[in-house]
Amino acid sequence: MKNNINIAVVGLGQIGNYLLNELKTKKKEIKLLTGKDINVIAISAKNKNKKRKFKINKKIFYKNPFKILDNKKINILFECIGQSDGISKKIVEKALNNKIHVITPNKALISKHGDYLSKIAENKKVNLEFEASVGGGIPILRTIKEGLSTNIITKVYGILNGTCNYILSEMDKTNDNFKDVLKKAQSLGYAEPGDPKLDINGYDTLAKVRILSSLAFKKKISKNNLLMEGIEFIEPKDFEIANQLNLKIKLLGITEIINNSLFERVHPCLVKKKSYIGNVDGVMNAVILEGKPVGESILQGEGAGPGPTSSALMSDLLSILRGNIKNPLGASSDKRKFISPFNINNYENSLYLRFEVKDKPGVLSEITKSLAKNHISIQRMIQIPDNKLKTASIVIITHKTKQLNSDNCLKSLKKNKKILKRPVLLRLFN
Length: 430
Description:
Layout: E1 4-10, H1 14-25, H2 27-34, E2 37-44, E3 76-79, H3 87-97, E4 101-103, H4 107-124, E5 128-129, H5 140-147, E6 152-159, H6 162-174, H7 178-187, H8 197-200, H9 203-217, E7 227-228, H10 236-244, E8 247-258, E9 261-272, E10 284-292, E11 295-302, H11 306-321, E12 348-349, E13 351-358, H12 363-373, E14 378-386, E15 391-398, E16 401-402, H13 403-413, E17 424-428
Parallel strand pairs: 1-2, 1-3, 3-4, 4-5, 7-9, 9-17
Antiparallel strand pairs: 6-8, 6-10, 8-9, 10-11, 12-16, 13-15, 13-17, 14-15
Helix pairs in contact: 1-11, 3-4, 4-9, 6-7, 12-13
């Protein structure tokens, strides 16, 4: 690689703006570390006139981002637009085909089109780097690809969404309801001000799980249907009861190999208070890997925001400048295969079930009969009456049971008019 490197940045939102400042202020440090001079010679965004913390050099601004790629002097392109399709996919695809290295924090793009784009990068002998797509500033992907490359990894799990972790931590601490804490998260910039559903419904975590799966197990990115649940149905009383049980509620992304099958899932879990993962609060992320011979490895840090994301983007830049041309997803495209999905119906877990019911004789009996009919045995039961409303909360902790059994049980109880609303189901983390 030559000593003078020309860079383009597409997308000037929070991350793009922060990145531009880093590229400007750390030129000397980058040269010291790599021997390369970097120059930003092209930028593009939806709105050139938008108020920003710095002046945009109009000489290097492109209204049409694709025109940037007509410039044969571009060596590296940062894609900071977001979204899995549209301009994001097209510009990354075109840049790679033009033998331009690409760096992106776009998890949606990689989780959907990572295999396709990786193959182009391999064929053109350029880099497609996406460290910032998972875990913000935590170097989890590079750890898997390089630091643990010869290990046999069997399981990866953790807290992968800072927004959800903040909301759950605040609900636990303040006893406020979900909607109020979500508004607080939005006001602090931890959640999208408009529609935060991609965070709270688990989709954001799902995209990260799929990237982790591909790297950890050296397989193609899965397209499997998987167990995915968000956090919007959890209420303050669930935290009160969890505390009584010496447990905490966390949204976990989990991927593991079970009997040569891939099992990916995203859902809230009850974890032990004293466990490592139970003590990761606020906007922090944490990822735990299990493998041989390494054993258990833990990485923790801020999972979102322009600072941590930009840190990961800059690490990708330095990797390219040092001449580390490598397969984007670890193993080459022709070596990675699809792995058969684990049958979700066979997933075994102890369950936390909370029923809001009319406080009338026979209700508990009807619930326990349905549990028994579906081969679900009770480990512990808590009943909390509300004399004013003449209702009660019935909480049941089960022994391990299959997913199919719990699905059938809750389906049968839907018809019971004495149960006032949808039961809350949480899984105890194995």
